[in-house]
Amino acid sequence: FCGSTSVTQSASKSFFNQCFATGKVTAANNDYAGGFIGYVYATSGEVGADSIALTGCYAFGDVTGVGYTGGFVGCAKTALGNGGRATLNFEKCYATGITLGTGSYAGGFAGELSSYGSVTDNNTYSYYSTIKISNCYAGGSAQAAQVVGSFVGQTLATRGSTTKRAPGRARSAS
Q1: Segment 107-122, tens digit of pLDDT
Q2: Which of 65, 113, 118, 168 is such that its CA lies 20 to 30 A from the CA of 147?
Q3: Residue 134 to residues 32, 50, 56, 97, 159: CA-CA distances in angstroms?
């Protein structure tokens, strides 16, 4: 569906609603392979509220890549810029099919989810970076040389990241 998408300015918003992708995705010799999006990134600008929302989207098909390989998204990141809020929301999204990463970080839904930064302003969290996942699932298997999960291969967060457990199976190649 989309190789990469991002929002990086104050009050920028991007919406994907009831979209789907079918077919096999192969990123031979490359990172960031996803059945729906390869790489998605939201970072806040000056005091703005930047967000990307994916609702009711799905991916059918097998995904093969090197690192950061996911059935729905290869890698999703949020980070603080110079203040504001950066959010990335996945709601009612799913992926089916086999996810194969020949390197690190593979998951049936996402290869990696990373949410960086929270800034304390007068002892309150007024700036934050969040990835939220609700009612999402991965129905296929995931395999990688290292760091693999049936739903997410790796989750990194300094504040505000949640995931749901997925059916399916995962195994690490030895």
Answers
A1: 999 999 988 765 555 5
A2: 118
A3: 22, 19, 11, 20, 17
Q: Are 8 and 50 in contact (CB under 8 A)?
A: yes
Instruction: Please give the model's pTM, rounded to 2 decimal places.
Output: 0.81
Tokens representing residue 162 in the block: 């949640």
Let me know: does 21 contact 61? Beta carbons within 8 Å: yes
Cα–Cα dist 40/34, whole Å: 10
Two tokens at 2?
């989309």
Angstrom distance (rounded) from CA 130 to CA 79: 8
> What pLDDT, in 10s, does the model give residues 137-162?
999 999 999 999 999 999 887 654 34
Angle, vertex CA 163, rays to CA 35 and CA 99, nearest 5:
30
